[in-house]
Amino acid sequence: MNGTIGNSNPDERGLLPYPVILAATKGNPDAIRIVVQHFSGYIAHLSMQVIRSERGNTYYGIDEDLRERLQSKLMRAVLKFDLER
Questions:
Q1: Distance in angstroms between the alpha carbons of the first and the last residue of the chain
Q2: Which of 4, 33, 42, 81 is the most exposed place for a label (fewest CB within 10 A)?
Q3: What distance lies between CA 6 and its chain's CA centroid?
Q4: Three-state DSSP state, 28
Q5: How far are the Cα atoms of 17, 22, 67 from residue 31, in angstroms, in the given order?
Q6: pLDDT at position 24 over 70
Q7: What residues have CB less than 8 Å from 13, skipping those under 6 apart?
């Protein structure tokens, strides 16, 4: 795994490092940005909507309002998260 960013342990692939989570729960803006970026693909998936064009064609697209609301909820949840429990 030379040249890749992230954990080298295959059991921890896709996990956020604990120091990032801890910093995000304390309100560090850079850590919160990393958390939101980590979940951006999942948020985009949840934000997909069927959109109908003016010509009647249907396709999938991201509902930006929904995407922004989900990001906001994630940030609020991170700030409320209690690591002591």
A1: 35
A2: 4
A3: 16
A4: coil
A5: 10, 8, 19
A6: yes
A7: 6, 7
